């Protein structure tokens, strides 16, 4: 086929595609319908989140803070981004005064941020090893390990949870798909999102990050106030420069 024939082929194909296009009004209607269904699913999942589970997880994290224990967070794909975001929020978003070097801080590490380490372990050993091999360098008894997985069945998260439990660390799962998968039976504490939609599950895991950070900032401020510190500072007041 010469160049002119090729051009004619694509002109004919484009013309056929345009003739089969869905009318704009129908597309708009469909988009609104899809959007409304997603939002309805999101609202339903929000309403089903257990406040008791949130309280338990917040209390575990606050005990880790008070006792100087480390918090490790891990996940894959969108959950990897949530793990990084959550580590940043717990580390910075709970501070009352970022300029005070003496303020007690959360010791939190995301296992998704060291790309050379992750890819070295994944390449040299297997993908299932890329988190557990990292945590072997650090985790100790009574540290906290948070695994984020929608399905609850991700092998590299499960393997890390199992190792953490052997060491005596406290394990938490941010899970989904109603049942929480295998991880729900393994972790000490969990918050499981009641939805089968990956987007909704990941949305609410991110909400849980901000929600837990807000709760912990409040708990930390109350604790320091009761210990003779200054009035607690609202989280939003520390974010005015962004």
What overall form do the CA principal axes indicate?
globular
The largest sheet has its strands arranged as 2-1-3-4-5
* CA(first)-CA(last) distance: 56 Å
Percentage of residues assigned to helices = 55-70%
Lay out the secondary structure.
Elements: H1 3-19, H2 24-47, H3 51-66, E1 70-75, H4 78-92, E2 107-110, H5 115-124, H6 132-135, E3 144-148, H7 155-167, E4 170-175, H8 181-186, E5 189-192, H9 198-226
Parallel strand pairs: 1-2, 1-3, 3-4, 4-5
Helix pairs in contact: 2-9, 3-9, 4-9
Concise summary:
The protein is built from nine helices and five strands. It has helices at 3-19, 24-47, 51-66, 78-92, 115-124, 132-135, 155-167, 181-186, 198-226, and strands at residues 70-75, 107-110, 144-148, 170-175, 189-192.
What does the model show?
- This protein has 242 residues and is of the alpha/beta class.
- It has 2 domains: 3-43; 50-238, 3-Layer(aba) Sandwich (Rossmann fold), CATH 3.40.50.
- The protein has 9 helices and 5 strands.
- It has a 5-stranded parallel β-sheet, sandwiched between helices.
- Helix 2 (24-47) crosses helix 9 (198-226) and helix 3 (51-66) crosses helix 9 (198-226).
- The N and C termini lie far apart (56 Å).
Using brief descriptors, characterize the structure shown.
242 residues, alpha/beta, Rossmann fold, 2 domains, 9 helices, 10% strand, globular
């Amino acid at each position: 086929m010469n160049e002119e024939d090729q051009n004619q082929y694509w002109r004919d194909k484009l013309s056929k595609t345009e003739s089969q296009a869905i009318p704009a009004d129908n597309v708009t209607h469909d988009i609104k319908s899809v959007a409304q269904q997603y939002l309805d699913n999101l609202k339903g999942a929000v309403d089903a989140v257990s406040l008791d589970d949130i309280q338990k997880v917040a209390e575990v994290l606050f005990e880790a803070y008070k006792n100087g224990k480390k918090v490790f967070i891990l996940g894959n794909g969108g959950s990897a981004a949530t793990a990084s975001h959550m580590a940043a929020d717990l580390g910075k978003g709970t501070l009352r005064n970022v300029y005070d070097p003496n303020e007690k801080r959360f010791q939190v590490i995301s296992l998704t941020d060291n790309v050379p380490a992750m890819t070295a372990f994944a390449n040299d050993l297997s993908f299932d090893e890329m988190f557990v091999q990292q945590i072997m360098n650090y985790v100790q008894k009574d540290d906290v390990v948070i695994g984020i997985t929608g399905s609850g069945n991700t092998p590299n998260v499960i393997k890390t949870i199992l190792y953490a439990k052997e060491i005596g660390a406290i394990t938490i799962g941010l899970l989904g798909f109603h049942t929480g998968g295998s991880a729900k039976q393994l972790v000490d504490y969990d918050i499981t999102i009641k939805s089968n939609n990956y987007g909704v599950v990941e949305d609410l895991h991110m909400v849980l990050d901000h929600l837990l950070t807000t709760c912990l900032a409040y708990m930390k401020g109350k604790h320091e106030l009761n210990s003779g510190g200054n009035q607690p500072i609202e989280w939003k007041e520390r974010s005015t420069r962004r």
